[in-house]
Amino acid sequence: MCGITGYIGPKAAIEIALETLKRLEYRGYDSAGVAFWDGQSLNVLKRAGKISNLIEMAGDIRADGLAVSHTRWATHGVPNDPNAHPQTDEEGQVAVVHNGIIENYLELRHELSARGHRFNSDTDTEVLAHLIEEQLETSDNPEEAVRLALQQVRGSYGIAVLFARFPDRIVIARNDSPLVIGLGEGETYLASDITAMLSYTRKVILLENGDLATIKRDEVRLYRLDGSSIERPPMHVDWSAEAAEKGGHEHFMIKEILEQPEAVRDTLRGRLKANGGIEFPDIKLEVEDWQRYRRILIVACGTAYHAGLIGKHIFEKWLRRPVEVYHSSEFRYGDPILHPQTLAIFISQSGETADTLAALRLCREAGYSTLGIVNAVGSSIARECDHVLYTQAGPEISVASTKAYSTQITALYMLGLFLSNVNGTLSMQQYTDATRGLMQAPSLISRSLEMEAQARQAAEALKEMPLAFYLGRGIDAYVAMEGALKIKEIAYVPTQECAAGEMKHGPLALVEPGVVAVFVATQARTREKILGNLKEIKARRGTVLLITSEGETDLPQEADYTLFAPKVEPEALSPLATIPLLQLFAYHVARLRGCEIDQPRNLAKSVTVE
Ligand code: F6R
Q: Are residues 237 and 283 in the same domain?
């Protein structure tokens, strides 16, 4: 995730801006930059790679009281020097750092180009610099210039702007991407995350969405996007620096679980339109190209593979095309029978998983069309696929994947709906219902997350389980598989994930008192059969934890513990509502068992060996 810090005051501004920026390194980034006033002009230094590269580049350069710095985690354009922030206009009148995504940047870029602006990067952010500079051509009011520029953009932003003509101030603005002002004596700090400034000040002002502010050495003025002035009282922060990095949470994993509504919203943003249309601005394929795919192949590992299984379910349901899902490590041994009109999809959070990359290369050699669903921009898988649909989960630090999974399935839902639409395989009503449901995904996930206390209580009761079955039917069985992987990897609970109907063909022999069966049951058409499966477990004195939808009354009567997810329409979207409950349950079991949650034993975040 991108990071912003800044300083205005009598001390060495570049050093402070970079020192505070280093405190955001843990969030992940791929390039860094700083803008500063040197007493005569506005300057920008930026470099792909680590902050240390930038520090080396800055050498002994001194700023005159003002600097803003940024770490970029690429979303639009690969991680290289030109795409690093700050972004400027051609004349270097304005320097902008930005966290977030400008949705209508392509449109704005075309309009600005038509008015003679030249662009130096592939970023969405650069349009902001040009828009602000354009306003300043006819105005001497930098705050007004930022305000009017922002009125033209849609999307999320936390921005900080420096001006060659007004070196006494930084103008900042927030919409859906946090910014914090830190108050000192005759000096003012700025950061996208309180952590960065804790060693300098604990007196902060938090910006709200729609706020702008002008920051000077000893003055802060706040106003709204409509121009009206406002006051926001400062607050005192007493977190430890470590707690602050995790947003006050005990572990990155829980922070990332709770970030899912935002991550899914960011993944939908700019693609699923308010009128229900879906478009992928970064994928250069015409409708006829999309229509020619007769089969779909999905290749991935671990959690990403589980996301692929959800993809199989929905593509088959909505698109009526055959779908094969392969573990990347098995792909080369399976001799899959591929059709020339196969779309091969590779799912990966890191974009560097060696097995997935190897399978991708085999598909490319064989001439198949390849599409990556990838989180890390500019990663190997993203670079080597013909097309990429980026998830916008932001960096995932905890080894156990959570928000990557929910954004991967969100991307698959959009892709499934888009392909169904261009192939006419869904009725208008079905399509409309599904896109409406998907639009509500962030709020559904938020409602599931409100069940944390209940998930914790179930974890408290079941934390000593010697073995857990994870069971479901249809799409629920795939979610159960992901729930099992979570508890296995972070809480070291032995699990058997299984289609519920398979229990009586063997695994049921393992059920005895103390064994837990976690059922995911949200689908009307599997309800009766699930009821039978619940009874099978209870008859053998196993313990049942049921994850079902609100409003369900019969199934909970057979369960020892029930967690209710919000009811989702259409039911095919229910994994978005049920997975948070399984993640929360696994997290709390691991916590209560005293496990190393963010770095479980024997596992690595990015598996770059085959
Ligand atoms: C599990 C987990 C792993 C990854 C797998 C693939 O929580 O994180 O199973 O999903 O190693 O990694 P990526 O998605 O980076 O290809």
A: no
Verify whether residue 312 is a known catalytic residue: no
CATH number at residue 359: 3.40.50.10490
Domain that holds residue 494: 450-595
Q: Which of 439, 468, 502 is a domain's end point? A: 439
Helix ranges, 292-402 (H): 302-314, 328-334, 354-365, 380-384
Q: What are the tens digits of pLDDT across the range 580-596? A: 999 999 999 999 999 99
Domain membership of residue 394 (yes or no) is yes
Probe ligand 1: pick from 301, 373, 485, 489, max atoms within 8 Å of CB? 301
State the amino acid at position 540 in one-letter form. R
Ligand 1 pocket at CB < 6 A: 301-304, 348-350, 353, 356, 400-401, 485, 489, 606-607
**Looking at residues 400-420, what average pLDDT do you find?**
98
Pair (390, 368) in one structural domain:
yes
pLDDT tens across 511-537, in order? 999 999 999 999 999 999 999 999 999
* Per-residue pLDDT tens over the stretch 195-221: 789 889 999 998 988 999 999 999 999
Number of domains into which the chain is organized: 3
Q: How far is CA 550 from CA 139, 173, 262, 564, 574, in A?
A: 56, 39, 23, 5, 12
409 and 507, same domain (yes or no): no
Q: Are residues 422 and 476 in the same domain?
A: no
pLDDT of 341 higher than 80: yes
pLDDT at 241 over 70: no
Ligand 1 atom with the smallest distance to the CA of 350 is 15
Tell me which of 327, 329, 349, 487 to substitute to probe ligand 1's pocket, judged by most ligand atoms within 8 Å of the beta carbon.
Answer: 349
pTM above 0.85, yes or no: no
The number of the ligand 1 atom at minimal distance from the alpha carbon of 405 is 10
608 found inside a domain: no
88 lies in some domain:
yes
Verify that 231 and 260 share a domain, yes or no. Answer: no
Mutate to test the pocket of ligand 1, among 330, 401, 487 (most ligand atoms within 8 A of CB): 401
Atom 8 of ligand 1, nearest CA residue: 401
For residue 284, CA distances in Å to 41, 323, 384, 573 come to 40, 23, 15, 27
Q: How far is the CA of 401 from the centre of ligand 1 (A)?
A: 6
Domain membership of residue 201 (yes or no) is yes
Give the range among 167-181, 413-427, 447-461 with minimum mean pLDDT.
167-181
Query: pLDDT-derived band of residue 176, with 50, 70 and 90 as boundaries?
Result: confident
Centre of ligand 1 to C-alpha 180, Å, is 33
Q: Is the pLDDT of residue 243 over 90?
A: no
| Residues sharing a CB contact under 8 Å with residue 369, sequence separation 6 or more, in sequence order | 293, 342, 343, 344, 386, 387
Averaged pLDDT, 371-391: 91
Q: Whose CA is nearest to atom 10 of ligand 1?
A: 303
CA 56 to chain centre: 31
Based on the domain organization, do 268 and 228 belong to the same domain? no
DSSP 494-561: -EEEEEGGGGGGTGGGG--TT-EEEEEE--GGGHHHHHHHHHHHHHTT-EEEEEEETT--SGGGG-SE
Mean pLDDT of the chain: 94
